[in-house]
Write a structure and sequence with these properties.
Length: about 240
């Protein structure tokens, strides 16, 4: 076993519990989403401090459209506000903004702000912040399969030669490494359709803290837990 501490290169977070955070304070759910959005920058900075190169945040799932229209509308508006308000901070931190999901189906204004912020930060080299928006793990696999079928039709790929690695090239962002650690806040013990393909061998950490209260210290606890994991990837692992 090497003496070097095991480091997290890609951290993915299911940011859950905004609604309960607000309700427990007698506030509207939207106030929780606002507090949650404000927390993103703090965690982005903390992640950089802990040398995490890739941070992926589950912000809106393909299933979240089931929520009342007013809540969905507030979330989309918050996304635009977040992008507008935090763009200077992302530039200062030299972070590249990235997104995965069915981005074409986002409301036009949100989609344009997103593409604008991605373009503005595209040459930043200090880390990658990926927002999962209108994202579903199953949708991603279906979308990859569609692209693959097209590539087969165009004679660009021989289906006999398809392997996990070449299939992975059809995912939303093939440049993203698999997450080392996936954190879910608010104590729920489920994946809720996040990164199904990518998290095959990720370590999981569930925090009981609601997302708006999940701070640098809570992140440090999760990373400490990760340090003590023995990742075996189906093999026999380290001693
Ligand atoms: C997470 O908080 C944010 C999104 C899913 C958009 P929730 O809104 O799910 O909060 P709870 O789970 O109802 O407390
Ligand atoms: C998962 O949270 C999605 C996001 C954090 C964006 P949900 O609150 O939507 O998940 P469920 O419904 O509790 O499984
Ligand atoms: Mg929730």
């Amino acid at each position: 076993m090497s003496d070097k501490p095991q480091t997290v290169n890609h951290l993915a977070i299911i940011m859950d519990g905004n609604g309960r955070w607000a309700q427990s304070r007698g506030l509207e759910r939207t106030a929780g989403h606002r507090a949650g959005a404000d927390n993103v920058l703090e965690i982005m900075r903390a992640a950089k401090e802990f040398n995490i190169k890739y941070l992926t945040l589950y912000a809106f799932s393909t299933e979240n459209w089931k929520r009342p229209a007013a809540e969905v509308g507030a979330l989309m508006k918050l996304l635009q506000e977040f992008l507008f308000k935090q763009l200077p901070a992302m530039q200062k931190e030299n972070v590249r903004l990235n997104a995965i999901g069915r981005l074409n189906d986002l409301p036009e204004a949100a989609r344009l702000s997103l593409l604008g912020a991605m373009k503005a930060t595209e040459n930043n080299t200090g880390g990658v912040l990926t927002l999962a928006l209108n994202y579903g793990g199953r949708a991603e696999i279906v979308d990859a399969a569609k692209k693959l079928i097209q590539a087969v039709k165009n004679g660009k790929i021989d289906p006999e030669k398809l392997e996990e690695k070449s299939f992975g090239e059809f995912l939303y962002d093939p440049r993203l490494p698999d997450p080392d650690l996936v954190i879910r806040t608010s104590g729920e013990l489920r994946i809720s359709n996040f990164l199904l393909w990518e998290m095959a061998y990720s370590e999981l950490y569930i925090s009981d803290v609601m997302w708006p209260d999940f701070d640098r210290q809570e992140l440090a606890k999760a990373l400490e837990s990760y340090q003590n994991r023995n990742r075996r990837f189906g093999g026999v692992g380290k001693k």
